[in-house]
Write a structure and sequence with these properties.
- The chain is α+β, with helices and mostly antiparallel strands.
- The chain contains four helices and 19 strands.
- It folds into two domains: 71 residues, no CATH class; 157 residues, 2-Layer Sandwich (Muramoyl-pentapeptide Carboxypeptidase, domain 2), CATH 3.30.1380.
- The strands form seven sheets. Strands 1-8-9-10 form a four-stranded antiparallel β-sheet, with no helix packed on it.
- A hairpin with a 5-residue loop joins β8 and β9.
- The protein starts with 10 loop residues before the first strand and ends in an 11-residue tail after the last helix.
């Protein structure tokens, strides 16, 4: 079970102005005596509940209910006030609805073939947006995150699992050359649709601390680079990752840049 990773963890309040929100309206601040209620910077807290509040197209604000070390309820606050900002914390497990179809939000595809329905886990990405990962690949990804953290490297994703309509939207934008749309595979063929692909925040490739760390360590953890010109695109594919290591590499043979 890898959902709700924040439970039983401690977080440090990093913002000197960590305001408490109203429980009934998280977009409003809680007041006392005409002043904002806040949690002092440096306070060690637990988070016992999380709420996601939509804030626009594909955007959301994330709030956690903070509890002090001695169990005192402090109140709701933005997770951006916490050290680490909740990046890589997992939230809810999403299960396919009964009768979900092959073009639905949980439909997995590979090489234009429908594979079936999969459970998804919500996770906070590098941009503080909510992504989804296949439940089968959450553990290897978090194992990599934790190993990198021990080396003071923050591995975080920009994109994880994509549904058929999401991939079609990206592909259509790419084919129509709409500004802001990057190269995308046709729907049904992207490895993001079968849950093994991760777009990792590497800010350009060689020379980036995260990318250089991945080159050294990711293949031993089952991850390998698979797409030309996309240093951010890694896949959890242990057989190909092992083959890459045996060649002294971190990518498949067809990746040359």
């Amino acid at each position: 079970m890898f959902e709700q990773s924040y439970l039983n963890k401690s977080f440090t309040v990093a913002d000197p102005n960590a305001r408490i929100r109203q429980a009934a309206n998280l977009m409003a601040f809680d007041m006392m005596g005409g002043s904002f209620r806040t949690i002092p910077k440096g306070t060690l807290v637990g988070i016992d509940d999380v709420r996601i509040v939509p804030s626009g197209a594909n955007k959301a604000s994330l709030f956690g209910r903070a509890v002090s070390a001695n169990g005192l309820l402090l109140g709701w606050t933005s997770t951006t006030n916490l050290e680490g900002k909740f990046v890589n914390e997992t939230l809810n497990r999403l299960k396919p609805a009964l009768g979900s179809g092959q073009f639905g939000p949980h439909a997995a595809w590979s090489e234009s073939k429908y594979l079936g329905q999969i459970d998804l886990i919500e996770i906070v990405d590098a941009r503080l947006e909510i992504e989804r990962l296949s439940a089968d690949t959450v553990k290897p990804y978090l194992d990599m995150v934790n190993l990198a953290k021990s080396d003071e490297i923050v591995v975080a994703i920009n994109s994880g699992f994509r549904s058929y309509p999401e991939q079609k939207y990206l592909y259509d934008g790419y084919k129509r050359k709409i500004p802001g749309f990057n190269k995308a595979a046709p729907p049904g063929t992207s490895k993001h649709q079968n849950g093994i692909a991760f777009d990792i925040n590497v800010a350009g490739g060689d020379g980036n601390d995260v990318y250089d760390w991945l080159k050294r360590h990711a293949p031993a953890l089952g991850f390998v680079r698979t797409v030309n010109g996309e240093p951010w695109h890694w896949e959890f594919d242990p057989p190909r990752a092992t083959a890459a290591m045996l060649r002294g590499s971190y990518k498949i043979p067809t990746v040359t840049d």
